[in-house]
Amino acid sequence: METFSLEGKTALITGGSRGIGYGVARTFIDAGARAIITARNETTLREAAASLGPNCLAMPCDNSDTDAIAAMVEDAWRVSPIDILVNNAGNGDYYKRAEYVTPHEFDEVMGVNLRGTYFCSIEVAKRAFKAGRPASIINVSSMTGVTPLERLGVYGASKAGIHQFTRVMGLEWADRNVRVNAIAPGWVETDFTTELFASRWGEKLRDDVPMKRFATVDDLTGLILYLASDASTYMTGSIIPIDGGRGLV
After folding, report:
1. Calpha distance 219→42 (Å, rounded)
2. Active-site annotation holder among 118, 155, 226, 234
3. 2-248 belongs to CATH 3.40.50.720
4. Which runs of E-coded beta strand occur in 92-238?
5. DSSP assignment, residue 222?
């Protein structure tokens, strides 16, 4: 089990104040890592860090602001060089048909999901290259980047973009030992999906999953731990579905 240990490593987790990001931080800390978590809401972020204990540090950051990302990664690197980056911050607030999405809403989703993931990866990778250090970058994507779903066109397009970034970065950075992989979850029970799952579409969404249930955060953290650890050192550029079989139908 030593290959799954994160002892002595530092992980940066965007969107770490709740949901998947919080669960990942907890799992990494349990595996021996120090976790640095980011989010826009400073109050919620600091509460999350306090609940995770002394091996967790909060660094507020707007993941759509490239200047803020660069400053945050620099500050994090000063604390400790980053061994693991989990790009989890995301915006999926707009559940509507394509013709009703406004330019502002489009930019908000793309800014956090696509722009934020891209430039956070770049900032960590550049420092890893300069230091000659290996790193593992894990992008939390979505099955919507593969399977088209009604009312999630912009969100799905942002996740499809993440898939292509994952492949290209994995290819370009393999010779410098910076690995880039992604997971593509299906529907996950978090604060973000509570209202949707309780709506009239919730039952249909559940019935569309062959396993007939939504994922929990704990269903995802084991796979993310694997990608972060030395157990996956020969993997890069992979996009791994974890969707209860939804992509098979």
Report:
1. 27
2. 155
3. yes
4. 135-140, 178-185
5. H
pLDDT tens by residue, 93-151: 677 899 999 999 999 999 999 999 999 999 999 999 999 999 999 999 999 999 988 88
For 144-163, what is each residue's pLDDT tens digit?
999 988 888 999 999 999 99
Please compute, for residue 234, the number of CA atoms within 13 A of its CA located in the half-sphere on the CB side: 0
d(CA 70, CA 106): 23
Give the chain's mean pLDDT: 94
Structure tokens at 137: 């970058």
Tokens matching residue 180: 């880039």
Q: How many angstroms separate the CA atoms of 26 and 48, rounded? A: 10
In this prediction the pTM is 0.95
The DSSP result for 64-129, as a single string, is: T-HHHHHHHHHHHHHHS--SEEEE--------S-GGG--HHHHHHHHIIIIIIHHHHHHHHHHHHH
* φ, ψ of residue 18 in degrees (nearest 5): -165, 175
155 assigned to active site = yes
Buried b (16+ CB within 10 A) or exposed e, 148-159: ebebbbbbbbbb
